[in-house]
Amino acid sequence: MKVLVMNCGSSSLKYQLINMENEELLAKGIAERIGIEGSFVKHETIGKEKAVIEERMEDHKAAIKIVLEALINKEYGTIQSMEEITAVGHRVVHGGEKFSGSVIINEEVKSVLEECSELAPLHNPPNLMGIYACEEILPNVPMVGVFDTAFHQTMPKESYMYALPYELYEKYKIRRYGFHGTSHKYVAMKAAELLGKSLEDLNIITCHLGNGASIAAVKNGQSVDTSMGFTPLEGLAMGTRCGDLDPAIIAYWMAKENLTIAEVNNLMNKKSGVLGVSGVSSDFRDLEDAADQGNERAQLALDLYYQRVKKYMGAYAAEMGGVDAVVFTAGLGENSAIARKAICSGLEFLGIKIDDEKNNIRGKEADVTTTDSTVKVLLIPTNEELMIARETKSLVG
């Protein structure tokens, strides 16, 4: 059984083809800069030379077509025909309260996902584009939706309710959902494995840090709190998202600038975060370079970002009554020793001590703490695709 996993972001598409008989990775790649000049696909069939396909991709449908053609390419592909693909597992960000687990995609599911697009405007639309494109190109292959929100359905009611009139929850299901659940679940399970302990016996803070970022409190194997909320806008400052905000600012801002709801929503989702503070970039590599060159706003954006992460870590340690391990994952968490060091600095009172030499590592599983640190700080590259493939197999297999 070969499962193709599609993880469509706002301007990128990560994919993997996995043989689920033994969870062997057959091929992987990423399409980048979709809808932007200079788009390309980096494709790798395991055991063969990597290929870079430079071709304009105006949308996700064009990207998926190139990906499928790469998989059957005689020179660098991995399968003889698309008929070898048993099922496609799609990462879907928001399913509202309708879905608490993975589902086989049908017309009803797609209709609900369309409705939820206003809750995740950066992600649900490209997620749906990926589903529609795959259905058109692979019409007889079952499609499965795996939701970012599913892992956080174990949050207690006091964690997911807002202090708003209760009727808003009853009528519109306005509540905190949480996101990046597939990633948080994977790295929490992996952390327990690396520590040689049962996940049910651990309190873990998982930090999914990248252009989109969230933190989860995983107590005894279950998510009990997480930083993102009703939409992926709440929580940490991110690449272009503002994160936590005094809601009164929105009305004040709209009145001062004569903005519409759509305009302020776009500004909070696409023009804020570290991009808005720095005026430089939403890419943390660019910010680190600019800060090194003395750009004060770039440094401020980084400091602000680190401070928000640290604040949530302290809150979740208190909420769980202690913490056994902290996990860093995703683009920034996996690759920036500077970020990990800055975030953990000052948390020695919690038993968190970073070893600078061990921390000088990128993209590999590692324990980066000192020998006398009572809390383990782990670097674990996330593998959302494998988790999605497992969910897909469980429904289709």
From TrEMBL:
Domain of life from the UniProt record: Bacteria
Pathway listed: Metabolic intermediate biosynthesis; acetyl-CoA biosynthesis; acetyl-CoA from acetate: step 1/2
Residues that hold Mg(2+) according to the record: N7, E384
UniProt cofactor(s): Mg(2+); Mn(2+)
UniProt KW Transport keyword: no
Catalyses which reaction(s): acetate + ATP = acetyl phosphate + ADP
Site (Transition state stabilizer): H180, R241
Swiss-Prot/TrEMBL keywords: ATP-binding, Cytoplasm, Kinase, Magnesium, Metal-binding, Nucleotide-binding, Transferase
Protein localization: Cytoplasm
Binding site for substrate: R91
First-listed, main subcellular location of the protein, grouped into a coarse class: cytoplasm
Cofactor info, note text: Mg(2+). Can also accept Mn(2+).
Binding site for ATP: K14, H208, L209, G210, N211, G212, D283, F284, R285, G331, L332, G333, E334, N335
PROSITE patterns per UniProt: ACETATE_KINASE_1 (PS01075), ACETATE_KINASE_2 (PS01076)
Signal peptide: none
GO cellular component: cytoplasm
Active site: D148 (proton donor/acceptor)
Record-listed E.C. numbers: 2.7.2.1
HAMAP family given in the database record: Acetate_kinase
Subunit structure as annotated in this protein's UniProt entry: Homodimer.
PANTHER family found in the cross-reference section: ACETATE KINASE, ACETATE KINASE-RELATED
Function according to Swiss-Prot or TrEMBL: Catalyzes the formation of acetyl phosphate from acetate and ATP. Can also catalyze the reverse reaction.
Family assignment from sequence similarity: Belongs to the acetokinase family.
NCBIfam families in alphabetical order: ackA
Protein name (database record): Acetate kinase
